[in-house]
Design brief:
This protein is of the alpha+beta class. Helix content is 19%, strand content 37%. The chain is built from one helix and six strands.
């Protein structure tokens, strides 16, 4: 059985116009979210033990999120300490050097 990582909302017709409007609105927001996905910029960053690392993300706007795509040297324990329209600062709480590819979106 084929699988898909996209979820389609069923078209449901109801007699209550408020409910129908809410369903249509949810369907439109779902389409917009699927179209945008996690489009962004991938940045490779080297983190040293127990230190904050500031790097340029080149989005041209303040990010709305980030996540680790891949890491070598161990599992990175990261949290954001700052971000703006040019840079993102992540604090690495681990005890060894890690190279991570970060998706900023």
């Amino acid at each position: 059985m084929p699988t898909s990582d996209r979820t389609e909302l069923q078209v449901v017709r109801v007699k209550d116009t408020d409910t129908q409007r809410a369903l249509e609105d949810a369907r439109e927001r779902n389409k917009a979210a699927q179209a945008q996905g996690f489009a962004g910029v991938d940045v490779t960053v080297t983190f040293t033990a127990a230190a904050a690392q500031t790097f340029s993300h080149k989005l041209g706007r303040q990010p709305i999120g980030w996540f680790v795509l891949d890491a070598t040297g161990g599992a990175p324990l990261l949290h954001r300490t700052a971000w703006d329209t040019r840079t993102l600062t992540l604090y690495y709480a681990g005890g060894f050097t890690v190279v991570a590819k970060i998706r900023v979106f």
